[in-house]
Task: inverse folding
């Protein structure tokens, strides 16, 4: 039994999703820095996807941590942002940082898709 004002225990799936979101957020931020060093128009297109993904993953993790009733919807949006970012990063498949980011985004998208169908 929980005391008034305390949150219910977090499921392993939710904790895994929060971890995936936070990891993806960090990799997106690192990749943005890499893009800024490269410069050029193609990187600006990727930057938009990276910014959307970084912000969405952070917000998604925050909402799950506070058990927001809108978490499932946020997870669905986060999965979409992560997939879009992974695709953008793979437009430069020879760049190791981009590849690393795409992998983190795909892991996060998969976890968020799972959570979007779960009861928070």
Result:
């Amino acid at each position: 039994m929980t005391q008034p004002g305390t949150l219910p225990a977090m499921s392993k799936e939710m904790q895994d999703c929060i971890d995936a979101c936070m990891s993806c957020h960090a990799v997106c931020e690192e990749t943005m820095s890499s893009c800024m060093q490269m410069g050029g128009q193609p990187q600006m297109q990727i930057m938009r996807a990276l910014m959307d993904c970084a912000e969405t993953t952070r917000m998604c993790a925050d909402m799950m941590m506070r058990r927001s009733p809108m978490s499932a919807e946020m997870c669905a949006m986060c999965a979409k942002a992560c997939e879009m970012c992974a695709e953008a990063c793979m437009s430069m498949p020879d760049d190791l940082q981009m590849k690393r980011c795409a992998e983190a985004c795909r892991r996060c998208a998969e976890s968020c898709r799972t959570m979007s169908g779960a009861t928070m």
About this structure: The mean pLDDT is 91. The helical segments are 12-38, 41-65, 71-89, 96-116.
